[in-house]
Amino acid sequence: MDIININSIKKTFGDYTAVDGVSFDVAQGTIFGLLGPNGAGKTTTIRMITNIIIPDEGKITIDGMKNGYDTQSLIGYLPEERGLYKKLKVIEQLKYFAQLKGVNAKDAEKIAMEWLVKLGAGGWENKKIQELSKGMQQKVQFIATILHDPKILILDEPFSGFDPINTEMLKSIILDMKSRGKTIILSTHVMSQVEQLCDDIVIINKGKIIVDGKVSEIKARYGEDTVIIEFDGDSSVINDIPDIRITDRSNHRVEFRLGANSPKASEILKDLVNKIDIIRFEKVQPSLHEIFITEVAKQKLGTKEATNEN
Amino acid sequence: MKTKSKIGTIIKHEYLSKIKSKGFIIGTILAPVGIIVIYGIIILVAVMSADQTTKKLAIVDYTERIGAMLVERDTSKFFLTDLKEAELNEKVLTGEIDGYLVMPKDFAEKGAATVYTSGGGGLGFVTLIERNTEDIIVNLRLDEIGADESVKALVNRGISLSTMKVTQEGAQDDYSQVFAIMGYVMGFVIYGLMFTYGAFVMRGVIEEKANRIVEVLASSVKPFEIMMGKVIGIGAVGLTQVLFWIVLMGIFVAFGGSIAAGFMGTPDMATAGAEMQDQNAMIEMLNNISISPWLIVAFLFYFLAGYFIYSTLFAAVGSAVDQESDAAQLQIPVTLPIIIPIMFIANVMSNPDGTLAVVLSLIPFFTPILMIARIAATSVPIWQIALSVVLLAATFFACLYFAAKIYRVGILMYGKKPTFKDMVKWFKLAK
Predict the structure, then answer these.
(1) SS3 label, residue A9
(2) Higher local confidence (pLDDT), A235 or A114
(3) Which of A156-170, A274-288, B68-82 has the weakest average pLDDT?
(4) A133, containing H or E segment
(5) Which residue of B has its CA nearest to A82?
């Protein structure tokens, strides 16, 4: 069942079109990746879903209702640019945000304390925000997002500012939310996280969707056109292979995609075994990272970046 | 699932977080303390300068009765002495006493005595002695010619009657001046409050925008509610502060006279010099100005009306900029109409019933400052007050409509410093 339906929404700011006829559906209980380069229209799309701004055209339905101020409390939104009152105590901050989402003060305090403990932040409740490190603030902001137990979570770059340990903790919380039937829209530039977490994605560029579908299907669409080689020896031999595009290269590892006129992978292997000492040779689907770059490049990544997303 | 308005939550948040802040508490308490301290210093200076002319005076009394009567009047200034004049001269020169008065045996009959001082002493000093001895001698003379009590009463009443008359005439003049001053003060206080609290609103909006809090807020609440919640919450803070001050002032006015009197020692008309009389008039004035409740209500109304009009505009300016330093230019159109009435307040107060005063005080942006000044100073016709209320209400709704539109677009706009043209564009953008 789809919990969010977005039907050809469009938003212009003066003569700049930020979102130009975007449509997609998000199924309940999934993690949905909303991807795209800077200035593609992601934030504008999210703001329309959260009813911060209203689309010029098109329609958004959330949990069967036309989106509006009534649907706002169904959503927990973690904006990319984090915002907390610097001089407010953590607990007051959390209570205030939760109350604005319709939770009463008493419940809000109780739930906030539970989450603080859960995220290893017990005992912070009476600290002022400005006394906290960036990572600590991120945790507070995350708690503020989920305090009212929303059906839908919209997380914009949720991992930024977190160390690897906290990143893993947050990932497990997100996956736990998913298993509890929550729907999560994840917007990030870190494609490895998308591959790990997302079920479906859309890639938006210049206000339009350029790729959409299940992550597995999208990758399958490209086929196993990528070769990863780990080796010992002189890496310059790789340069002699015709019509390949090297996507990642280090001293003892190279990853490249095959072009239309490049030899078959097996022939490349045959040729290389005599020249270098091959440790690993693998033919795989391209990474989402690669797909992202390819697809956006196809659109000739514009030089102009939207001002309202910076 | 119907979402109920969360404006109450926002108002409460804005109110509590401001009212609990150290800055606010200190400001609220310090401002009147500062005023009282200044007031106290003025009184002290007055008392001290009065003290300088009321010198300590030794009395060499050959009449053997008038001296004692004079000392009785004010033992702090006069004392009897048996010392010889040569010794007294020495004491005057060393500064041990300020001077001495020699009352000859025939003082009561001839009324001539001599004061010896180190020089000068001021008019107040001579007046003081004259006044005090005159009374005594007049009564003595009346006694001697066998005048009965009714005659004495008549003479004394005559004196006190004329004093009363002079005092009252002076007092009447003084009061109208006092009311004019009160008009000025109230105008300036509203000016200060509109600026201060308008700036609070603007800074609050900028803080939420600069720290990207507003995006979280806007994903929960209508932008209009965010803005109005802030405006009302901070307005309530202002009201709290003003009410606190009014209560404090009420207490001060109620007890001010006695407090001031305490500063000056016991003022006694009979022994008081010219300066003392001024102070007494001041104390009496303090005791007599009753600020009418109606004036207080009017003050609160014009303060709130002015605050609401300007704070919405300040909110619009705040929403347009990314940081406070960018607001300087954009807030000129908002601050200018606050400053203009202050430039005209002297003209208005010099003739508070004149055409200029009436017209200026009815321009809604000037009304809060100028109308309250007029109301304090003169009796403003009720139709003018009613008209000002209507115009203020209309202006408030117009400003609110305008500001709310700018606000909802402005809070999400980052990047370049906006111009007025941009703001007009946003105004059109907001549907």
Answers:
(1) strand
(2) A114
(3) B68-82
(4) none
(5) B212
Alpha helices per DSSP H over B219-273: 223-264
Buried b or exposed e, range B290-307, using 16+ CB within 10 angstroms: ebeeebbebbbbbbbbbb
Give Cα B78 to chain centroid, integer Å: 37
**Tokens for B91?**
């004491």
Q: Check: CB of residue B63 under 8 Å from CB of residue B103.
A: yes
pLDDT classification of B431: cutoffs 50, 70, 90: low
Q: Which residue bears the tokens 């055409």?
A: B355
Query: Helix, strand or coil for residue A299?
Result: coil
Q: Do A70 and B17 touch (CB under 8 A)?
A: no
> Angle, to 10 degrees, between the axis of helix B355-362 and the axis of helix B382-410?
40
In contact, A151 and A3? CB cutoff 8 Å: yes
CA distance A52 to A43: 11
- β-pairing, A75-78 vs A31-35, is unpaired
**A152-168 burial: b if 16+ Cβ within 10 Å, else e:** bbbbbbbbebbeeebbe
Which residues does residue B110 pair with via DSSP β-bridges, in sequence order? none
Residues A86-102 have a mean pLDDT of 91
The answer to whether residue B425 neighbours chain A at the CB level (below 8 Å) is yes
Closest A-chain CA to B409: A53
Give CA–CA dist B69/B115, Å, rounded. Answer: 17
ipTM for the assembly? 0.83
Chain A residues inside the 8 Å CB shell of B200: none
pTM value?
A: 0.73
- A 10 A CB-CB count for A66 gives 10
pLDDT per residue as tens digits for the range A132-158: 888 888 899 999 999 999 999 999 999
The span from the CA of A244 to the CA of A255, in Å, is 10
> Which member of A52, A54, A307 has the closest CB to residue B416?
A307
A310/B414 touch (CB, cutoff 8 Å), yes or no: yes
Q: Which of B273, B376, B279 is nearest to B53 (CA)?
A: B273
Q: Which two tokens stand for residue A270?
A: 């045959």
Sequence ranges of chain B with CATH classification 3.40.190.10: 53-162
Q: Which of A63, A35, A28 is nearest to A49 (CA)?
A: A63
By three-state DSSP, how is residue A245 classified?
strand
Q: Which residue of B has its CA nearest to A50?
A: B219
Contact (Cβ atoms closer than 8 angstroms) between residue B188 and residue B342: yes
C-alpha to C-alpha distances, B201 to A25, A248, B25, B404, nearest whole angstrom: 40, 53, 18, 14
DSSP assignment letter at B429: H
Q: Which helix (H) or strand (E) holds A59?
A: strand A57-62
Instruction: Give the CA angle between residues A106, A111, A114 to the nearest 5°.
Output: 130
Instruction: Name B308's Cβ contacts closer than 8 Å, sequence gap at least 6.
Output: B231, B235, B396, B400
CATH number of B53-162: 3.40.190.10
Give the DSSP per-residue string, B308-324: HHHHHHHHHHHHH-SSG
Query: CA B126 to CA B135: how far, in whole Å?
Result: 14
Compute CA distances A232 → A210, A244, B234, B298, whole Å.
39, 20, 70, 89
Instruction: Measure A105 CA to nearest chain B CA, in Å.
Output: 10
